């Protein structure tokens, strides 16, 4: 297919000191990167859309590296991740689904082979559409303390012929996590679940 046409990137990092409880000794951070790209399949049905998934792989790596840099650059500091995509109104949900492999594998590679599946969300919508991107621990999906979500969106995207592609990384659990379950220190790392 060719090169992915990027209109813009948005990168944001939030640092959470507390949610009414005691301030965290090390405040966790939640980082988000979004890319607004042209959807080459917008406007009509295409049977074979897999070539664009291949085209998105270099963009996924670039976005994962940019996001990691915004969070300090140390892959060992990242404990949670997620991904999501929004397709504009001339696209279809399956176009947004093309982000699953490029978005997920790029973060796993940049973080040194994280084991857990990268949770995902996708939808169809116009400019200003918001998406809650789910987050789980990078090595064990059952670690409840890291269940989270980051709201994502851009006021002028996606236009009808665009996609908004997103990655999220976090540096720790929710600031006052105390919902029990498997603790990060108890991860066995055998299957990406526990």
From TrEMBL:
Organism: Aestuariivirga litoralis
A Pfam entry, by short name: AA_synth
Record Gene3D superfamilies: BB2672
Top-level taxon of origin: Bacteria
Entry protein name: Amino acid synthesis family protein
């Amino acid at each position: 297919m060719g090169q992915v046409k990027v209109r813009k990137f948005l990168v944001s990092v939030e640092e959470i000191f507390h949610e009414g409880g005691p301030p965290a000794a090390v405040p966790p951070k939640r980082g988000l990167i979004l890319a607004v790209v042209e959807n080459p399949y917008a406007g009509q049905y295409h049977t074979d859309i897999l070539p664009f998934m291949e085209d998105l792989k270099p963009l996924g790596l670039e976005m994962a590296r940019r996001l990691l840099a915004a969070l300090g650059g140390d892959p060992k500091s990242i404990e949670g991740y997620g991904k999501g995509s929004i397709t504009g109104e001339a696209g279809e949900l399956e176009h947004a689904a093309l982000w699953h492999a490029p978005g997920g594998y790029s973060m796993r590679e940049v973080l040194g082979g994280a084991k857990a599946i990268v949770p995902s969300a996708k939808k169809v919508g116009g400019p200003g559409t918001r998406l809650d991107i789910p987050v789980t621990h990078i090595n064990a999906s059952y670690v409840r303390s890291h269940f989270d979500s980051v709201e994502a969106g851009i006021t002028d995207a996606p236009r009808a012929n665009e996609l908004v592609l997103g990655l999220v990384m976090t540096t720790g659990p929710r600031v006052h996590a105390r919902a029990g379950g498997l603790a990060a220190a108890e991860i066995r790392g055998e299957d990406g679940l526990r």
